[in-house]
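Ticket #484: bound-state structure for glutamine.
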Amino acid sequence: MKTLAFATIAQLKQKLAAREISESELISFFLDRSNKYNSQLNAAIEVFDRNSIDQQERKTGALSGIPGMRKDNIAQQGQGLSCASNILKNFVSTYDATAISRLKDVGAPIIGRANLDEFAMGSSNETSAFGPVRNPWDIERVPGGSSGGPAAAVAAGMVPWALGSDTGASVRNPAAWCGITGLKPTYGLVSRYGLVAYGSSVDQIGVLARDAYDTALVLSVIAGKDHRDSTTLQRDKYDYTAALTGKIKPGMTFGIVEDMIEAEGMDPEVLAIVDATIKDFEKLGVRFKRIRIPVLQYCAAVYFIISRAEAASNLSRFDGVRYGLRNKDAQSLNDLYSETRHDGFGNEVRTRILVGNFVLSAGHADAFYQKARIVQQQIRSDLLDAFKDVDLLLTPTVPMPAFKIGAFDEANKLQLDLMDYFTCFANLAGLPGLSIPAGFTKERLPIGMQLVGPHCSEELLLQTAHAYQQCTDWHKQYPKGYEE
Ligand code: GLN
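RESOLUTION: The complex was predicted; output attached.
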């Protein structure tokens, strides 16, 4: 059965079409696997029961009977929506996110809600109130974050695809550390309606899957304008698989950002994989140009300020009155707010709210928030300038492989935030980024490479990655112990 567990969506669709297996059997197969491996990995906060899956109102279409999971910060009607936080532990959503309703419209069964860092704040999935997720390649290690649950679930063959969200790294980082493909689309390509807001100006729902082709399949379903989210781009439905011919667009030039390659803390094994990836793409006819984008040195700091500022204001709605947890002993309204928020939020979230309110406060907003906005504009314009010379940028997704659970304590947590340097520039500029499996360390931990393109270059990114995946097999590897 291992071919089924690690089959791509495209292969599963063929099996369904050939009637080798029925939709119902496929759902049972992945449901059984999800229940079996979740006890070890903690990838899902809840694997749904068969009844509730069968009750989902699904039509038939491109993903009929192909099970997936959603990160538990994406709303699904009648199901829990915890954001991995105690404050929403028992909260049930009354409506579907647009991405979820579009998936139901093409027949996709959602079989569980995946674990995450609390409110998507983190890089390792260790801040979840429901406990850390384990990386299927080495269960002593983190899967990356904040979409660690969706990534671990796909990597362990619990589901063939999952939805995540990416504010600074959160689809690409865990995709890289779990050896799968992960796309953060252009800001506004996928509706954020029903995605619990963290940093609204940088959040995007993204796709985690086995390869570029499957990613394109899911993206084709969820992308496109939505009258419920005024920040969506005026794009009609589009088939992102159409351009996946297996060939690369002729005459492509990739930029290698030297500032990144030379970054402090870059693991030599990751660097060796960068070199090997360059050689593979050269064989496909890609030319490389070394470039410098000095303003990127500020991107982690700018992201730090903007994401905290937006988080502080977005999370002010969790006050014990409207949603979720409510402190029962409070004697006054102020006590109700502060006690509920104290009980409901974990350390990481509380710290970020404090920092966010500080950088927005009178007397400090000019020095921090406004300045960060100005530098963000510069980052955006320097990146757009870079795309006058090169078609795509190639960077490591994360500068090192997955670390052991607990390796970063409070004292050295800042290093974790610095890892966002490789990915958050794409969010700050609204650009799409795709992480693809590109090799393994000596300890057999997956390493991902990231392709970033100009706005709305998803088709080019996926076409390029698909061509690469026709002549490499990193994306076909799966962790030991999950065969049956
Ligand atoms: N590590 C980043 C953060 O903690 C990214 C998280 C995300 O993309 N949701 O904010």
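RESOLUTION NOTES: The longest helix spans residues 366-386.
TICKET STATUS: resolved
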